[in-house]
Amino acid sequence: MSRQNSRYGGNTSCMTAESGGDMLILDAGSGIIALQEELFGRSGKSEKPVHILVSHLHLDHIVGLGTFAPAWGADATAHIYTCSRDSRPLREQIFGVFSPPYWPVAMTELSGANVIQVEPNVPFEIGVFTVTPFLAKHPDKTLSFHVTDGKKSFVHLLDSETSKMNRAEHEELARFCKNTDVVVFDAAYSVEEYRIYEGWGHSTVADGVALAAEWNCKHMLFCHLGRHYTDDELDSWIKDLDGEKFIMSYDGFEMEI
Prior knowledge:
Strand order of the largest sheet: 6-7-8-9-10-11-12
CATH superfamily: Ribonuclease Z/Hydroxyacylglutathione hydrolase-like
Oligomer: single chain
Helix content: 10-25%
């Protein structure tokens, strides 16, 4: 029996950005498992550095790290970038959940990944990319990312409840999103269901549409879609919108900007 959401799929957050031979991975949800084999084959190991930007440490955004081969062992090639959220060492914050009784081995000890602490509003460079993290409107110190290669730009704005932003937060967000080529926007809930989950740190397609004109972004890519919605329901959210500007993502989606 086929799933009712078989076209959109149900992996949790993971996407890549590529330019000039350099690649970024944004978040390490369950989608990174298929990505690993696509990039590195059956062994899963990469000889080149692998750069992962982690927006926050909620399980749906890091669950794939548990089996992501470039993060394991002394020969690990993964570089993981995120901000610190408490007094523990950053490695323990990232990998602490992958320990007994929640995981069969203690990944804090077994991972040789290079963990790199970043700070909100402080840009840093990875290859051709300049990345500027900034705080999202989401629990537990979540980062959004503005990414540019000097020619094109996009904003990774998942897990952000834009309707709950105050004026200063709204103005800061607009500063990062205005005139970008793509805004990757959180659309976790329908407008009706959002009323139930208000305050959980997510947004809707309607929120994104309301902001798109203000930001003058060329494309808005809706992601972080609720797993329980059917293909037909997700289709209906954008059926009356400009299909060139407003796009619903799905597992394996690719876009050239």
